[in-house]
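User: I'm new to structure prediction. If I give you an amino acid sequence, what do you actually give back? Let's try with this one:
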Amino acid sequence: MKPLFDLHTHTAASGHAFGTLKENIEEAAKKGLLAMGTSDHSKNMPGTCGPLFFGNYKVIRDEIFGVRIYTGMEVNIIDYDGRLDMSSGMLGKMDYVIASLHVPCIKSGTPRENTDALIGAMKNPYVKIIGHPDDDRYPLEYDRLTAAAREMDIVLEINNSSLRPNASRQNASRNLKIMLEYARKLGIRVIMGSDAHIWYDVGCLDYSEKLLQELDYPEELILNYNIDRLKYVLN
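Assistant: Good question. You get back a string of structure tokens that encode the predicted 3D arrangement of the chain. For your 235 residues, that looks like this:
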């Protein structure tokens, strides 16, 4: 079974990535993806782009090089109530929104506070994906996180970059195994994302696939294997 889409990709507009949108789409086409999402970081990430950038997504065609293109954003959670650094008006213009905790944008708190931040973000009607909930720098209460995801029908990400040997995030494999055991019991949908910060990583989901296969996570709960499952994360 082959992944058909990758929604977590970045361009140089994020300030710390190294590819262009054209290069990313070309790589998606080369790897045989049917769809790709572009999801640069929102405004509180140092060096990234502002609302004007995201507001001009309308110039991007729906299909390029045979790949269906979705325009999104990885929005920053900025406090333990789950407030985000973009207005609802702007989030509503996105095809999809990933909400994540990032070191430059929020100080890590207790496991309860960090979990509260993610649960608060889930309550935003435009957030459908929680990005990389796997980092010991932001310890989490996975029983509460997964229960909230189930209640609000939120998709949890299995981030390929987190699982790389040189990842800056800490103990992702161990944390994801814990999260996925809770998630399996609750029937929670997950999505694999490359979190590509350079074009050749677009569509690279090998570490995520290996982990999900190792845990025998139900295929029907993994979005990337069926293009129709995009409906669970699109606004």
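You can read the tokens as a compact description of the fold. Here is one thing that stands out. The longest strand covers residues 67-76.
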